[in-house]
Amino acid sequence: MADPIVWKTAWITGASTGIGREIALQLAARGVKVAVSARSAEKLAALGPGLMAVPLDVTDASACQAAVDKIEAQLGPIDLAVLGAGTYTPVAIDRLDPGQFSRMMDTNYMGVVNCIAALAPRMMARGQGHLSWIASVAGYVGLPKAAAYGPTKAALINLGECLYPEIKLKGVRVSVINPGFVETPLTAQNDFEMPFLMKADEAARRSIDGLASGRFEIAYPRRFVAILKTLRALPYPLFFRIIARSVLKAG
Ligand SMILES: NC(=O)c1ccc[n+]([C@@H]2O[C@H](COP(=O)([O-])OP(=O)(O)OC[C@H]3O[C@@H](n4cnc5c(N)ncnc54)[C@H](OP(=O)(O)O)[C@@H]3O)[C@@H](O)[C@H]2O)c1
Questions:
Q1: Tens digit of pLDDT for each residue in 213-243?
Q2: 216 Rama sector, left if φ>0, alpha if ψ -120 to 50, beta otherwise
Q3: Alpha-carbon distance values, 101 to 68, 138, 146, 190 (Å)
Q4: Which of 85, 92, 142, 150 has the smallest set of CB atoms within 10 Å of its CB?
């Protein structure tokens, strides 16, 4: 396993449950000073006294700025951010609700943008730091029921591609984490068999190893990633035929 002790101080959003929680606990166990954010103050406090709980709603840009100010005043410069706050609800094709789409974009996409806007200027002024966020393999291709979620994740991957080269010139790294299906409260609502389902602690380990290696994209599990990247490269008629047969069980 690569050594994650390249960071002294980390800020994890979406740390009250699931993948973010596991990443926070694993980093803290390995000696990193960790600040944790999510809306639920009680769940953050339950992570233990060794982690700095900074409750916040990532859709509130000024709260993100205040969180960064507070964490850096207390723990010192943040040199790793893992922005994992996110939400998912399936889209019912016969009941399209624009509010569902904008809420998901606000949390999943603008939530990351708000945190980057608060932290990136400080990192760039220091000439060092590592910004990362959790997108998803669902951002590679459009999938049934994911019409509100998938675009937020595609946007996050594209955001990373946009920022990486320019921000690197300022000494700051960017990484995008693209997990497949991971067993968390977010996926507990799924009523279908999730291929290559992974435990959250394993997802956290792979995320941390990938971050320590400094890669731009950290994607797992490998076989699922390879399948979806292959699907993305197919001509659309073939792509839609495969989706209809494998996901919709039609055609
Ligand atoms: N599980 C998967 O299969 C999977 C796959 C690919 C990508 N992902 C992504 O991985 C990230 C973590 O997901 P997870 O599966 O670990 O889900 P999860 O257990 O539901 O965790 C989501 C986290 O985000 C926080 N959150 C939600 N809305 C927020 C807001 N407005 N402000 C601040 N925090 C907020 C939640 O805490 P509060 O409710 O307390 O705010 C929670 O800590 C998400 O971005 C998700 O899209 C998950």
A1: 999 999 999 999 999 999 999 999 999 999 9
A2: alpha
A3: 28, 15, 10, 18
A4: 92
Distance 134 CA to ligand 1 centre (A): 9
Q: Is the CB of 74 under 6 A from ligand 1?
A: no
Q: So what's the pLDDT on residue 5?
A: 58
Residue nearest ligand 1's atom 41 by CA: 39
User: Is 136 close to ligand 1, i.e. is its CB under 6 Å away?
Assistant: yes
Q: What is the mean pLDDT of residues 69-94?
A: 97
**149 is annotated as an active-site residue:** yes
Residue 238's SS3 state is helix
* Fold for the domain defined by 9-246: Rossmann fold (3.40.50)
Give the tokens for residue 88.
Answer: 């998912």
Q: Closest ligand 1 atom, CA of 197? A: 3
- Please tell me the distance from the alpha carbon of residue 7 to that of residue 79, in angstroms, as a whole number: 6
Closest CA to 67 of 89, 39, 86: 39
Name the DSSP class of 148: T
Q: State the average pLDDT over residues 190-202.
A: 93
Query: H or E stretch including 231?
Result: helix 222-233
Do the strands 130-134 and 173-179 form a parallel or antiparallel pair, or are they unpaired?
parallel
- The H helix count followed by the E strand count for the chain is 10, 9
From the CB of 185, is ligand 1 less than 6 Å away? Answer: yes
Which residue(s) pair with 219 in the sheet?
178
In the block, tokens 């974009």 appear at 105
